Amino acid sequence: MSNTTSPCPSNSFSYNTSLCACNPGFYFPNQSTTTCTQLGAGNWSVGSGVSSGQQAFFLTTFFSIDSSIRRLTQSQAVLLETTLIVLVAWLIFCFCLRIRKIDQSGKSKVFKVRWWIGQLDFLFDTRHWTDEQKAVVRRKTELGGTFSVASWILFIGLLTALLYQVFNKRTIEVHRVKPANTPDLLSFINDLEFNITTVSSMSCANLVGPTSLITGMPGFIDFRSVPLSDYARYTCHNSSTGPTVSLRCDNCKIPRRSHFISWHFVDLPNNPATAVGFEFNLTARDHYEKKHVTYVSGRANTDGVMDAITNGRKTFRGSETNVLKIQLFPEEYINSKGLKLLRPLFNDFVLGSHFTDAGWLKASLENSRAGLVNTTLFISYQSDYIVQIDKESVLGPVSIMANIGGLYAISVAIFLYLLTQCETRILKLRNEDSVMRIIISQRRAHKNWDKVRKFVMYTWGPSNLDPNDKSGKLPEKSMIESLHGFGSLRRKGPGSRKGPVCTEKSNNGTTEMKSITIESPSSRCESNLIGNTEEARGPQAGAKMDNGDICNSSINS
């Protein structure tokens, strides 16, 4: 509350003629501010004690794609829709190429793309419904390439969806309940800490701290009242939202009775005891393994019954106590080496004295005997049973491999059925593939023939293979080189060899020696002497060769 001579701010009223107080549900965040702040809704948070973590799984052992898939996708529907879109786009693309006419030259880009689609036929190349039905013949077709890629698109999409399901639901958490006996309960040794903040403009100076711990139920024979210092210690510190009372018990064991711890706040000069809610953070930690923690945190300002007029806005003040009911459950985590933790649960909040009307709150603030905010922490131990928690794998390596094989078989079977239906009912699909193979074969043969022709022309010089030479005669320069022996320096083809030496007599009576090249052993020795046709056909044309063979020379004009 604030002492000020100026008019009170909005959402507030004046009392005792000089003091200002906020309306129910509003408070001053600190003593220096004069603006009333409304208590908002709190966020609840509950910790399980042991995070799920990365389980020993045969896929995650080799591939670190768990987090990647979870970042890229939110559900299996996204993966399946993406797979369907890609599959339909691929089939439409192939259909648009198929309706185009075949380029007979085989040089257009459309023809090349269609041919390479046919080369992608790696699933159905031995399963085509051809006339000969030869199992050993691998016939790649454009339709087979289309369906091969389509089947792989479908398989990869379904496999990704399967992996997403595996990473999200590969294990389930199993809870078993067993009756508890004393040795089991004594093995639970935890460090407990309760932090409860009274949301108000008060400070720790308003606190009258707890001094005793009450065990058992009032009115029963097990009811006891013992000093709080024998079990726990408490501290108080001021926070931005109000004073925080911390209760801490180290190396605590589970008692078999309920506990009550009470404290209250009183009025101070110019600072009355009022509150608008309670924030709490309850933590249980293993005494030996500090990294394992169970906790519950949140904010309480109502018991769930909302007042329609005030919209649930309340200010706590008065002698009736506000009770925060906490339950502690003993849990044994078998999947974490038998870890034993107490799980705190916020069970209920029982409203104490409170006001929802500004007039009644003003009357209470002007009455010093009502200047109290009582708070009681009621801790109940559920020690009759122990909850055993374990994780069991839903999918093992064998089941996952079986699922993958099933997805692959389904993908191939769908498009194999479509392939057989198309090729048996539409004959044009097979004819176009035959035409494309003929065009490719012709292009390859023409390309290879060009290579052979260029090789022969380069090796033996210009000859009849030259398409520009229409006379069918060898050039004179080549003949002169052959007569003077230069032809022997050139490479000889694999089908030619040097034949026997022939002697021929010319017009002037001299004898000349000629070396004749024979293309095969069965061919005759031929001489192409220019200008001596009649003399070569005379009786002197036949001459004895060195090896005894007769060389009959003929001149082909």
UniProtKB/TrEMBL annotation:
<feature type="transmembrane region" description="Helical">
    <location>
        <begin position="77"/>
        <end position="99"/>
    </location>
</feature>
<keyword id="KW-0472">Membrane</keyword>
<protein>
    <recommendedName>
        <fullName>Transmembrane protein</fullName>
    </recommendedName>
</protein>
<feature type="region of interest" description="Disordered">
    <location>
        <begin position="489"/>
        <end position="510"/>
    </location>
</feature>
<feature type="transmembrane region" description="Helical">
    <location>
        <begin position="143"/>
        <end position="167"/>
    </location>
</feature>
<feature type="region of interest" description="Disordered">
    <location>
        <begin position="532"/>
        <end position="557"/>
    </location>
</feature>
<feature type="transmembrane region" description="Helical">
    <location>
        <begin position="400"/>
        <end position="420"/>
    </location>
</feature>
<keyword id="KW-0812">Transmembrane</keyword>
<keyword id="KW-1133">Transmembrane helix</keyword>
